Amino acid sequence: MVKRVSILGATGSIGTSTLDLIVRAPDQFEVLALTANRDVKKLAEAAIRTRARRAVVADPECLDALRDALAGSDTEAAAGPDAVAEAAAMGADWTMAAIVGTAGLRPVMAALQTGATVALANKEALVSAGAVATAAARAHGATLLPVDSEHNAVFQCFDFAAPERVRRIVLTASGGPFRETSLEAMRAITPAQAVAHPNWSMGAKISVDSATMMNKGLELIEAFHLFPVSAEQLDVIVHRQSVVHSMVEYVDGSVLAQMGTPDMRTPIAHTLAWPDRMATPCAPLDLAAIGRLDFEPADPVRFPALSLARAALQAGGARPAILNAANEVAVAAFLAGKIGFLEIAAIVDDTLERYDPEAPATLDAVLAVDGEARRLAGERVKDCVA
Ligand code: NAD
Ligand code: MG
After folding, report:
1. Annotation-wise, does 324 bind a ligand?
2. Which of 98, 169, 326, 363 could be bridged to 351 by S-S, CB 3.0 to 4.6 A?
3. pLDDT tens-digit map of 63-89
4. How far does residue 123's CA lie from ligand 1's centre (Å)?
5. Which residues make up the CATH 3.40.50.720 domain(s) of the chain?
6. Which fold is adopted by the domain 3-147?
7. Best of 8, 21, 35, 99 to mutate for ligand 1, by most ligand atoms within 8 A of CB?
8. Cα 106–44–99 angle (5° rounding)?
9. What percent of the chain stands above pLDDT 90?
């Protein structure tokens, strides 16, 4: 059976890995929509290569360039945030949600509302709107499959038929490029150093999140929404090789882990073929060559983002949405060279201190909280620059 697929964020790191799997099995997949922010060239190339029905850029100013790039092909061009959300609802059987940040929230909701399967890489959507998104998935009978390697690992090990048998979920963290860097040295970290992840090749935003360990904090919140466990049942351990992708501990002491080489095509393929399996070109795991696997606790002093996220998870309500929005603003400012590395967590902390609204119950309410948190975080960025 041919699976109809769409990829939101097709030009990014996850989008490119997803396309790589799809073009290797052209007779198994039909591409409905591919979307991007403004990388017209890469989007058009992918659309032509996969004979996509529609290609969409979020930036309306890129529409003419996209039309030109698609000239002579059968792919329709569209532009604007609404067109991205419409593309998410074209009736795909499987949709990859790989837009980075809260920009992906409305398209994720649109895809969930079709009741189909959504492979979720866009963790920010679940962090800021976890309750709203999972309620929409339930209401429309949609299936959410986690792409994030840790959550995909947990999904593969978790006994959903008897969640009371699970004692704990342990998310592994690589510790990022500054696992051993002193707090003093962290002050001078440059964007180029922060995006150079030791194990994974990823987009800039998630690479900085890995370096601050906010990524693992966001993943704690993501796990809370994906699996039927309490916040207290979620733990983090630093495992620098990124071979054990996460673990589920049962009440009898058994611990099930999923392992593999650090290549996102494995978890993507797991969601693409699920409940079946498909072959990938990923290098097989060679444990003898790796030799040893190391584990250590995370350091809360050098990585305060982790504690901020844990506190936001425990408090619930609007806290995770504020944490996420302030982090997006701070990371963008860091990447633009406006603030220092240690100021990222400080700005998130400050925004959480200054803003404590009611829990948002609808998508619009989440987006309002997100907007106000961005405004407040933006003020602090200006203070840092001044
Ligand atoms: P990336 O920066 O490489 O790609 C982001 C994609 O989103 C691009 O296609 C870009 O055009 C699109 N985009 C950006 N802003 C947009 C906007 N305003 N509107 C519409 N589209 C927009 O990022 P990535 O590394 O592929 O990560 C994508 C998501 O997957 C993130 O949420 C990230 O946390 C998550 N994730 C990534 C990895 C990884 O290995 N890269 C692993 C786990 C989870
Ligand atoms: Mg991850």
Report:
1. no
2. 326
3. 999 999 999 999 999 999 999 999 999
4. 10
5. 3-147
6. Rossmann fold (3.40.50)
7. 99
8. 25
9. 98
3-state secondary structure of 77: strand
- For the chain, residues classed under CATH 1.10.1740.10 are 317-386
> How many residues does this entry show for the chain?
386
CA 100 to chain centre: 7
Instruction: List phi, psi (to 5°) of 29.
Output: -130, 145
Q: Which atom from ligand 1 is nearest to the alpha carbon of 16?
A: 26
Is 35 a residue whose pLDDT tops 90? yes
* DSSP-derived secondary structure for 240-271: TT--EEEEEEETTS-EEEEE--S-THHHHHHH
Q: Which of the listed residues 14, 39, 40, 266 should we mutate to test ligand 1's pocket, taking the one with most ligand atoms within 8 A of CB?
A: 14
Ligand 1 binding pocket, CB closer than 6 Å: 9-15, 36-37, 39, 58, 84, 98-100, 103, 121-124, 148, 200, 202-203, 205-206, 264
What integer pLDDT is reported at residue 185 of this predicted model? 97
pTM for this entry: 0.98
Q: Is the ipTM of this complex over 0.90?
A: yes
| pLDDT tens, residue by residue, 127-185 | 999 999 999 999 999 999 999 999 999 999 999 999 999 999 999 999 999 999 999 99
